[in-house]
Amino acid sequence: MTVEGADDLDNASRTVSVRIRDAEKVVSLSRTRVTRGESSVVSVAGAPGEVRYVRVAADALGEGAAVNTPTARAVFDDTAAVQTVGADADAGVVYAVVSLDDDGLADLRLQTERFGTGSVDVELAASLDGAVEDDATLDVRERTVTVSGARTTVVGESVTLSGTAVESEQVKLYAAVGESYVPLYAESGLAETDVGGDGTWEVDVDTARVVDIPGTYRIVAVADPAEQLGSSADIDSETLRMFDVRDSASLTTVEGALSLSASRTTIAATGGDEFTLSGSAVGQSDELRLYHVGPRGDADLTLVDERDGAFEQEIDGVDIRGTHTYLLVGAGRDGEYAHAEAERPAVGTLLSGDETSAAAIAKLRDAYTGAGSDDTVAAVEVEAVDETLSISTPAAQVAAETVSVAGRSTNEDGTTVFVELRRGEETVSTAEASVTNGTWNATLDLTGVEPGTYRLSAGTATTRASQEVTVRSPASASGTATSNGEQSSDGTTPSSNEAQSRATATTTATDTSSSEPAGTSPGSAATDDGSTTATRFPGLGAVPVVGALALVVLGLVGRGRRTGAKGTENETE
């Protein structure tokens, strides 16, 4: 209300503030919705000088809170308007007695730490057990913060931590390191974030900072950190306990991994024999460095992108024979290369170009794995050779049926191998195969091919191999026939000496038996098939007969030799 002067006092004025209220006794709250732990100011209006009771029922208290004076003092602040604070277990209330000032007003602060969540009725009465003159309702909500995320991650990777923060506006993350709590970092700036309208929050934490040493860490999420928001300073455990709303979770960080392998380690030195380098790159930088060192020490560099912890790089091929070494370098835990350059690294800053292959490799390794560096290096060697082709199967003898023909080749993948079986100028069967990872395989149909010796050949546009094979009939697959139709018991062909011995024994027996007519012995009788064996040696069978004839032959031979010797002696005399 403002009063201004008139006439001679036209330059004077006075302004005062007044409160207009209902004549009835009333109670009101400065905040009708709070998070447990916050406070609200209770205002009481009535006749100046009156005394009033501000009561809260005991059932509004949280679990474990006793109905006694200490609890009442924790609920009602002892301000100038408060005459006394107390509790009545029988009546089931805690209360504060206030005295209205000359304006008929009284204010006191209501703390909510001892309340449970839900609605709290604040009542105004003339006495402890008097009728309710007025009341106001306070809505108490629980302010909570939760944090969760991956339990284990690789150092250098980004890990997502998330949670809820009901009735809070910001969340800040710390990690327990030694005796302190160190602020965590996101990909850009501190690991702090606003709470969404649905009470949730999420931060992508960079594990290359603070938690970059493998181990298990306690991660603490603090709601509404006040003056700590935006600060990179560490805090101690005592300061942390001052934050009423916090939650924690554990996070384990492990060492990253880097591997490198080649789809083929032997290729053709044609310049177009493509192969693939691939591997894992967990906990490394997004951009990897791939060095190639040739047999003569020449080197080049390719930047390779890592995706989801893996990579793959196609190599067009090389045209110099010898060992080609590929070195893959990752930035390690800190995400920074030991050999750092402006934007794009160059081989010339590390090598002069006059190094041997071994020296170039050693210099590259030293640049990234020196003292204090956590960069990781993986290597693989690829041998570049002249194009070659060989036949591995079949063996020297095959059956006249479907036959598998296979071999190896250093030709480029996809090179066509032509396979043929020839006899002289005649091509008997053909097939085609394709080189895949250094091998090829074809199928020849030899069904109906006549037994005999053939030339099996395999070739490409630049290479060729051949060998001699013998084709056998399928019926003789289990053994080879002899010249007179006999076959040894173990499936092998008898030697020439064995065959000659058999032939000699047969001839000798025949000649001997025919020298004496059948039936000359008394009582003998000829057999139906004309054989003399049973007649001359009844009951002895064929084997004794042959043996006896052999003895006769040997005796005659021996006698002839003695006679010859005697004749010689006579001549000498």
Describe the overall structure.
The chain has 573 residues and is mainly beta. Helix content is 14%, strand content 40%. Strands 13, 15, 16, 17, 19, 20 and 21 form a 7-stranded mixed sheet that branches. It is elongated. The relative contact order is 0.06.
Layout of secondary structure:
Blueprint: E1 2-4, E2 13-15, E3 26-29, E4 33-35, E5 39-45, E6 51-57, H1 69-75, E7 82-88, E8 93-99, E9 105-111, E10 118-125, E11 132-141, E12 148-149, E13 152-154, E14 158-164, E15 170-177, E16 180-183, E17 192-194, E18 200-206, E19 215-223, E20 235-236, H2 237-241, E21 246-254, E22 257-258, E23 261-262, E24 266-268, E25 275-282, E26 287-293, E27 299-305, E28 310-315, E29 322-330, H3 357-369, E30 376-385, E31 389-393, E32 397-399, E33 402-409, E34 416-423, E35 426-434, E36 439-445, E37 452-459, E38 464-472, H4 496-514, H5 533-536, H6 542-572
Parallel strand pairs: 4-11, 13-21, 24-30, 32-38
Antiparallel strand pairs: 1-2, 3-5, 5-9, 6-8, 6-10, 7-8, 10-11, 12-14, 14-18, 15-16, 15-17, 15-19, 16-20, 19-21, 22-25, 23-25, 25-28, 26-27, 26-29, 29-30, 31-33, 33-36, 34-35, 34-37, 37-38
